[in-house]
Write a structure and sequence with these properties.
By secondary structure, the protein is an alpha+beta fold. The chain folds into two domains: 143 residues, DNA ligase, ATP-dependent, N-terminal domain (DNA ligase i, domain 1, Orthogonal Bundle); 86 residues, no CATH class. Helix content is 41%, strand content 10%.
Length: 287
């Protein structure tokens, strides 16, 4: 947990994107599984805990400090995790008893996922007693789910791709099929195993702002919008390809995946009824 807390602390004070990327990549390279997988899940917002909520943190600090003082401090600091981490009272170690080692990130995540609602306050208080100010701050950030260290999910996936000279779009394609702690993802990126198999017949593809001109030589560049298919009779996804404003022929290409393959449907809002299909033919999708 201390290594993850140190990473968050350095990211919070690092303004440069490239430096943030180097910090995250170095952490993923030096940290073993499954800690680095849970760190990736925390940074990308893939972790959620049923009973660990900000209200629980307020109740715990209210039992140990003056409520008025906490309210004034919270108004001044503006961050619940930082306020509680600084105000949490230090406990004196018992006579002849060594301080227990701080919990690992894996231990914290697995315990928060499995512990009951009545047992969670006691366990959370124990962790806060064992950690220092930075460790408490990182723990509370993990509980509240709001890291706010200036790192997007895309940047974290880029750091994973940098471990094995992969492209971030390759990580994006696999991401919807993966679950924490992403052991198979790190094994593939580092070249220790093959690429994870995607069983979905219509896998996710990263969005693009425009198509290459060579793909559509007759109509130029087309904007793409891909989302789940709303038609109950079709399965998978559909992809709306819209022409830019400078094109005279206004139309929409609707790609439908029905299990057997892709089909293309052209809708012309300026001709006939709005939204009415004017032509329909089988085609091969370029994505």
């Amino acid at each position: 947990m201390n290594r993850f807390a140190e990473l968050l602390d350095r990211l919070a004070y690092e303004p440069g994107r490239n430096n943030k990327l180097r910090l995250i990549t170095a952490y993923f390279r030096e940290t073993p599984d499954p800690d680095r997988g849970y760190a990736l899940a925390a940074i990308t917002g893939a972790l959620s805990f049923k009973h660990a909520k900000p209200g629980l943190i307020r109740d715990l600090i209210a039992e140990r400090t003056d409520p008025v003082l906490f309210g004034l401090s919270y108004d001044y600091v503006g961050d619940l995790s930082e306020t509680v981490a600084l105000m949490w009272p230090k406990t004196a170690p018992g006579a002849g008893h060594n301080n227990p080692p701080p919990p690992s990130l894996t231990e914290v995540v697995t315990t928060l996922r499995t512990l009951g609602k009545t047992e969670l306050p006691r366990q959370l208080s124990q962790w806060l007693d064992e950690l220092d100010e930075t460790g408490r701050w990182a723990l509370l950030k993990l509980v509240t789910g709001a890291l706010r260290v200036g790192v997007s999910a895309r940047l974290a996936k880029t750091a994973v791709a940098a471990l094995g000279s992969r492209e971030p779009d390759e990580i994006e394609v696999l991401w919807p099929t993966l679950v924490p702690p992403y052991a198979d993802l790190f094994a593939w990126v580092e070249g220790r195993t093959d690429m994870p198999v995607i069983a979905d017949p219509a896998p996710f593809r990263p969005l693009r702002s425009a198509w290459d001109f060579a793909l559509f030589p007759n109509i130029g560049k087309w904007c793409v919008d891909r989302r789940p298919n709303p038609e109950p009779s079709a399965c998978g996804y559909h992809c709306c390809v819209r022409a830019p404003r400078e094109h005279n022929a206004v139309g929409i290409l609707l790609w439908l995946f029905r299990g057997a393959g892709w089909s293309i449907q052209r809708r012309c809002p300026n001709r006939g009824l709005p939204g009415r299909a004017m032509s329909y033919r089988k085609a091969r999708a370029p994505f």
